[in-house]
Amino acid sequence: MHDDVTRRRSVADHAAAVAGLVAPALAEARGRGAARVDVATLLTQVGAGAGLSPRVLARDAVAAVALPGFDNSQMDGYAVRAADLAGVAPGAPVTLPVAAPVPAGTQPPPLEAGTAAPVMTGAPVPAGADAVVRIEDADPPRFPDPAAPAEVRFSAPAAPGTFVRAAGSDVAAGDVLVPAGAPLGAPQLGALVAAGVTTVEVEAPPHVLLVSTGSELAPAGAPLGPAQVHDANGAALTAALAQAGARVTTRVVPDRPDALLRLLAEAPGDVAMVVTTGGVSAGAYEVVRQTLGQGEDAAWFGHVAVQPGGPQGLGTVALGAREVPLVAFPGNPVSAYVSFELFLRPVLVAATGGAPARRATGRAPLAEAIDSPPALHQVRRGTLDAEGRVRMTGGPGSHLLTHLAAATVLVHVPPGVAHLDAGDPVDFQELR
After folding, report:
1. What is the pTM of this model?
2. Most buried of the four, 5, 328, 360, 414, by CB within 10 Å?
3. CATH class as words, domain 72-166
4. CATH tag, 43-67+169-203
5. Average pLDDT, the chain
6. What is the pLDDT of residue 5?
7. Of 233, 192, 255, 226, whose CA–CA distance to 62 is shortest?
8. Domain span(s) for CATH 2.40.340.10 in the chain
């Protein structure tokens, strides 16, 4: 099925088509594999900078110990027996002798009736005590020298449980701490460690085969031959896919159908999706379109009403006996990256628990006038200046990689708009 270039899909329609094809395949891939890993290993990986790709729990993580593990004080103050302060009023205070202080990390003796023990935030509440009075509500409002006998006065009662964090009030041992399907971000890892969880079962991230096409391409780090350029798309999209939660295998193939077909035939067996860059337009050497856009089950190749990133492809491709989604982006580096942000990243992070789930968006005045093709949704690259205005980084050209690298926002100019003046409001989405 083919599309004349004059009949363009809208951005929203193509995004919906990508989601409709890719989301079910990613959901199926989530159930294919899981591994049990040490929480300490995960923390080491995160600390080493390997935390770009979120890990998602395949099975509920259950608390090994209760949180809190013991009754502890919510405030710096005095641990007391509520019964000792019953009937206390501003005009009728009660004076109690001060017991030994309770620092955090110590196990105190039981609190004798008719005494008050200085207790620090997070320290255990002594057995027998059932309330804490804040230090600022005591008289004097400071802790005494622990080496000398002292007394403290209270002018208000304290109900049982006041400023006491009861053992197990957060989670009980054996209860679900983090449910299956949750991404393991900073709060989740903190909770796992606090609750004594040492191992978790995590889902295998979806495996994406990223194929950069073009006889002019040399892989990252390889020497350049005549008329060759380095594979910027492979580098940028490998990082972008990993940040969105995927495991990525990156390959470069020349503009030859036999080379592309051989690469697909040799693809790893657990690949959940194929993403290609280049070879989707109407030129003489459009290898992806010419190889995968023929026959009854051909992928769709056509144009989307967007600049950059107009030529797009979408369908399925056979990897052995399996059919997996094919998402085909154009080859210009800015076009490929903008296409990823518009069409693939949202559905991928929804499946993997990647963060942020949605790019932050905003609306701000332009620092300068810009023009836009009125029939297209134009996506420009820009930054927010010190005055909160949107300023372009370079022009609309899809080859301006250094300007994309300098950008912090993608600027959206909708169809039907040919010109915007400085000061006119414009919508943007953050990239960082």
Report:
1. 0.79
2. 328
3. mainly beta
4. 3.90.105
5. 93
6. 43
7. 192
8. 361-430
Cβ–Cβ under 8 Å, residues 371 and 426: no
Class assignment of domain 361-430?
Answer: mainly beta
The beta strands (E) that lie in 74-116 are given as: 77-80, 94-97
* CATH 2.170.190.11 intervals, the chain: 72-166
CB 143 within 8 A of CB 118: yes
Q: For the residues 104-110, what does the mean pLDDT come to?
A: 96
Q: How many CB atoms within 10 Å of residue 383?
A: 17
Mark out the alpha helices in 204-276 (DSSP H runs).
232-243, 257-265
The token duo for 203 is 């889902």
Q: Where in the chain is the domain with CATH 3.40.980.10?
A: 11-32+205-352
CATH tag, 11-32+205-352 = 3.40.980.10
Q: How far apart are CA 297 and CA 317, in angstroms?
A: 9
Other Cβ atoms less than 10 A from the Cβ of 233: the count is 29
Number of H helices and number of E strands within the chain? 9, 28
Tokens found for residue 242: 């990993």
| Burial per residue of 260-289, b for 16 or more beta-carbon CB atoms within 10 angstroms, e otherwise | bbebbeebeeebbbbbbbbbbbeeeebbbb
Q: What backbone torsions phi and psi does residue 193 show, to the nearest 5 degrees?
A: -65, -45
3-state secondary structure of 242: helix
Residue 85: DSSP 8-state? G
CA distance 304 to 12: 10
